[in-house]
Amino acid sequence: MLTNIRYILITALRDWLFIGLLASILFATAISATLGSTAFLEEREMTITFAAGSSRIILMVGLIVFVCFHIRNAFDTKEIDVILSRPISRSNLVIAYWLGFAFVALLLTLPVIAIIGLMGVNNWPGFIGWSVSLLLETFIVVALALFSAFTLRSAVTSVIACMGFYVLSRMMAFFVMTSQSGMVGGEMKYVFMRYGLKLISSVVPRLDFFGKSQWLIYGFDSSQDWIVCVIQAAIFIPLLLLASIADFRRKQF
């Protein structure tokens, strides 16, 4: 297991993942600083908000692409077959992959936290909560990308499906609020849509609760903000890993 984790880290270094994402995040931060300088009020707060939001998106997209292409390349080059020829179970292999990618996610998240911290901390509890929730979100995204890569046969399809699910999870609050607004009619189709969105929102990860930029400025509204993040991570990470293991066990080599 440790060998597989070390191999994933070497692959990330070989593919220039750290340098590429760090350069993209620094570039996004520079653009955020430019946009923040145009504000009449709370210039630094706006810069921090833009930088945190853009860095979060770049980090998640980079992890999704790296995980999906790494797993599909492992299948195409028969790397999975070689690993399974050793005394290691398929469930342990999936867990080892997740631990390796989670370690890479940790190394990628730390510079993001440092950059936002160097820009200025308005609220320390909010900053700490934002940092922890961002790390938990990367762990969930890694598990989601792992499940997508194991179940789908194309790296491109895996990336598209995973990104689509991520966008759905991030915008679920907007969809639910829109369906409940007065602008939506009372016809039967809208009623079904409203209840359908509520059902979907109750079974998919609500990533809109993670890494809220407002925490960096104003802190938590209540202790439930960070509790929800921890509970979701504790539920969906094992669930996605179990689904990946179940699908991987059905595959024939």
Helix content: over 70%
Which overall shape is indicated by the principal axes computed on the Cα atoms? globular
What is the number of domains?
1
What is the chain-wise order of helices and strands? Answer: HHHHHHHHHHH
Largest sheet: none
DSSP summary, beta strand count = 0
The computed structural class is mainly alpha
- Low-pLDDT segments, ≥5 res: none
Determine Rg (CA atoms, Å): 20 Å
- Report how far apart the termini are: 21 Å
**Mean residue pLDDT:** 84
Strand content: under 5%
Number of helices: 11
Any overview of this molecule?
This protein has 253 residues and is an all-alpha fold. Helix 2 packs antiparallel against helix 3 and helix 6 runs parallel beside helix 11. It is globular, with a radius of gyration of 20 Å. Helices cover 81% and strands 0% of the residues.
List the helices and strands and how they pair.
Blueprint: H1 2-14, H2 17-36, H3 43-76, H4 79-84, H5 90-118, H6 124-151, H7 155-170, H8 172-180, H9 188-203, H10 213-218, H11 224-250
Helix pairs in contact: 1-5, 2-3, 2-5, 3-5, 3-6, 3-7, 5-6, 5-11, 6-7, 6-11, 8-9
What's a quick, concise take on this entry?
This protein has 253 residues and is an all-alpha fold.
Features:
253 residues, mainly alpha, 81% helix, globular
